[in-house]
Design brief:
- With 212 residues, the protein is an alpha+beta fold.
- The chain has one domain.
- The protein has nine helices and six strands; from the N terminus they run αββββαβαβαααααα.
- Strands 1, 2, 3, 4, 5 and 6 form a six-stranded antiparallel sheet that branches.
- Strand 3 and strand 4 form a beta hairpin.
- Helix 2 crosses helix 6 and helix 6 runs parallel beside helix 9.
- The longest helix has 20 residues.
- The N and C termini lie far apart (53 Å).
- The mean pLDDT is 94.
Length: 212
């Protein structure tokens, strides 16, 4: 089967996901504080289908990208933020739903209808219980602080994630000292997304100071 995105759009629309551009959808039920996305991709000659779900607070996303550019070293100087659909907190629906081939679906083994039905079913029954209620800044803060199968730190940029947590936390009234303590256990995750020239503890301190 050759992937035809048009076969997916009616079912996704029923779930509230509207097409933004090729293989990118945004939930109409997103709130002002938390926007929800789906991102499709193909690999292996177009035979393997993957789906990531994304969550963002636009202001926190912009703050985090600014922090990366300002404090993460010269290799990040050109990082920019596109407010239309940039979303760095992306996680695998296939991993969450247990898709069989490296968290992917094999298109040559499925019909268009079967693929559309499978994706719609897993969004409704696997993804929605995890993200559908994440609609406030506090909800997103709690989600990003987690590290379970739905939200592994190692799947995303730890530096950007930590900066988002700081931004949201400060606007919730959490002190910089409390946030610093909460993020100490994730210094290794932060370091994994920084250049060698910048220590994770130094980056975190700069972000905390920038948020005040």
């Amino acid at each position: 089967m050759v992937f035809d995105e048009r076969s997916m759009t009616p079912g996704l629309a029923e779930l509230g996901y509207l097409r933004l551009k090729k293989r990118t959808y945004k939930a109409s039920w997103s709130s002002t504080d938390v926007e929800h996305f789906l991102f499709f991709s193909l690999y292996g000659g177009g035979n393997y289908f993957t789906c990531d779900f994304g969550l963002r607070n636009p202001a926190a996303e912009r703050f985090a990208v600014d922090c990366l550019r300002l404090f993460a070293g010269p290799i990040f100087q050109d990082v920019r933020f596109d407010p239309r659909f940039d979303c760095h907190m992306r996680f695998s629906l296939g991993m969450l739903a247990g898709w069989p081939s490296r968290s992917s679906l094999v298109l040559s083994k499925m019909s268009e209808t079967a693929l559309a039905d499978k994706v719609k079913y897993d969004i409704s029954n696997v993804l929605f219980p995890v993200v559908r209620s994440v609609l406030s800044a506090a909800d997103l803060f709690s989600f990003l602080m987690r590290d379970d199968e739905s939200s592994r730190w190692l799947r995303v940029s730890g530096a950007i994630r930590a900066a988002m947590i700081v931004y949201l936390g400060r606007r919730m009234g959490i002190s910089t000292s409390e946030l610093n303590a909460m993020l100490q256990s994730h210094l290794k995750d932060i370091a994994g997304s920084l250049g060698r020239a910048v220590a994770s503890c130094s980056f975190l301190q700069e972000v905390l100071q920038h948020s005040s």
